[in-house]
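Re-run requested by the PI after the first attempt was lost when the workstation crashed. Everything re-entered from the original request form. Ligand of interest: SN-glycerol-1-phosphate.
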Amino acid sequence: MTDPIYKTLLQHKATGRKCFAVLIDPDKTGHLDALLRDCNTHQVDFIFIGGSLLTEGELAACIRKIKAQTHIPVLLFPGTVLQVNEEADGLLLLSVISGRNPDLLIGRHVAAAPLIRRSGLEVISTGYMLIESGQLTAATYMSNTIPIPRGKNEIAACTALAGEQLGLKMIYLEAGSGAEKPVTAKMIRAVRKAVNIPLIVGGGICTPEKVTENCESGADIIVVGNLFETHPEMLGEMAGAVHQFNHAAL
Ligand code: 1GP
């Protein structure tokens, strides 16, 4: 089957089933084994791996370690071309559509295209939208772009719509890892209303209540990373909020 991960996502979206993804930063793998055990126990749907900047982590070794301990699909969430690695199951091919940095809209994609084709990875083209979140995040700084203002829901909606019209397969609404303020429910609702493609929401999500609110507002995939570096014990509760939402919606 071609594009198995994306097909699964579309099926989930069609039935209203929400997914939970855990973001792993290869630079911060101090308690990776325990985290993966929890991911298995609590039925995490996806593992995203990558970051704005990797300094010490060895991406390939980290993916191998993950694959040895779980069957959860691993999707690359690359901050740079250097983070394309064929050991993963798929690649979120990010285009930073909230910004006006040509390098992140098409430039780096050109450079990476032959490498991506050779990798055989399932490619899921994704419109990445950085939203202002109270402070300067690594994602905003490293992307050299201006995020969409926090209250400008109509700009976010039109940006997502343009991404869908351009043929992108998903939208990633992002406050930035460790964001002080996550994306608001109002903005998620506005974007949901504007597009039909699957919607990922992440950045600064720290409570099960916010997970539930995001699901209610139309997010299809909730991503959490930073929280589990300091509070790994919260993984069950956060994943549980998604599962509870799915049960309640039955
Ligand atoms: C970052 O959206 C992801 O790109 C996850 O954000 O690390 O803040 O959970 P956090």
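Saved to the shared folder this time. The first helix runs from residue 4 to 15.
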